[in-house]
Amino acid sequence: MEKHIVILTGAGISAESGLGTFRDVGGLWDQYDLEEVATPDGLARNPALVHDFYNARRANCLGAAPNAAHVALSRLQAEWSGNVTLITQNVDDLHERGGFDDAIHMHGQLMRAKCASCDGRWDAPKVMQHDAPCPHCGAKTTRPDIVWFGEMPYHMDAIWAALDEADIFASIGTSGQVYPAAAFAQQAAAAGAATIELNLEPSDTARHFQQARYGPATEIVPNWVAELLEQTPG
Ligand code: APR
């Protein structure tokens, strides 16, 4: 029977593409107060600051390239005989630009925008203006289509369903400090999945994994994918 691989990625998979992580030394939450730039209250208090923060991250993302780890997951999707479900906490588009189709963005996407009044969605311009009118309702309450602290992540029904039928669950480049993603390994293991963590160093949820590989994602992820494909020819 073809095995279903479910993968969770975090900021660490994009680190070697030059995009900052959040909690490493000098990370984004060392540079910015997340309460000011990643909460609905922050938007209400100072929408210009919030847009400046995400405009800078969007510019970084547009100037970055997918790395060997992103490309390796796309190879896995193309050559694996069973299903590969990719759930990402990342809001960058490097999985897509690295060739992976239909990644599940549980925290939203930098390249999408939404209206805080009508919930309308559209492709974000490179630079969002905090006082630009919503293209759907005209209200000047636009925001990046990103899930902030205190908000419900997207696609959770599909995510729980994938975890319940996973044969292999792999977590790549995440510190395991933010729920619900930090609980995915336990959920998958309870459903009988083999679990593996691939990260620069043990995460806060390392104890929930049966196997682990530590090192830079651009080294350990391609090696892991190559071993999987050698075990089970495409
Ligand atoms: N290769 C592999 N792993 C790496 C690399 C690398 N080159 N560089 C850093 N890492 C690892 C770090 O060791 C750390 O465990 O990536 C992880 C990054 O952790 P965080 O910065 O906490 O990022 P993440 O886990 O994705 O954060 C989850 O928190 O702020 C919210 O919504 C935001 O999606 C984000 C969520």
Q: Would you kindly provide a written description of the structure presented here, covering whatever features stand out?
A:
The protein is α/β, with parallel strands linked by helices. The chain folds into two domains: 1-18 and 64-107 and 152-234, TPP-binding domain (Rossmann fold); 20-63 and 113-146, SIR2/SIRT2 'Small Domain' (2-Layer Sandwich). The chain contains ten helices and nine strands. The strands form two sheets. The chain has a six-stranded parallel beta sheet, sandwiched between helices. A three-stranded antiparallel beta sheet has the order 5-4-6, covered by helices on one side. α9 links the parallel β7 and β8. α6 (68-79) packs parallel to α10. It starts with a strand and ends with a helix. The relative contact order is 0.19. The mean pLDDT is 96. Adenosine-5-diphosphoribose is lined by residues 10-12, 15-16, 21-24, 27, 89, 107, 173-175, 177-178, 199-201, 203, 216-217.
Summarize the structure.
By secondary structure, the chain is α/β, with parallel strands linked by helices.
What labels describe this entry?
234 residues; alpha/beta; globular; 3-stranded antiparallel beta sheet; 6-stranded parallel beta sheet; 9 strands; Rossmann fold; binds adenosine-5-diphosphoribose; 18% strand; 2 domains; SIR2/SIRT2 'Small Domain'
How are the secondary structure elements laid out?
Layout: E1 5-9, H1 12-15, H2 28-31, H3 34-37, H4 40-45, H5 47-62, H6 68-79, E2 84-88, H7 94-97, E3 104-105, E4 108-115, E5 121-123, E6 142-146, H8 156-164, E7 168-172, H9 184-190, E8 194-199, E9 211-214, H10 217-231
Parallel strand pairs: 1-2, 1-7, 2-3, 7-8, 8-9
Antiparallel strand pairs: 4-5, 4-6
Helix pairs in contact: 6-10
The protein binds adenosine-5-diphosphoribose (APR).
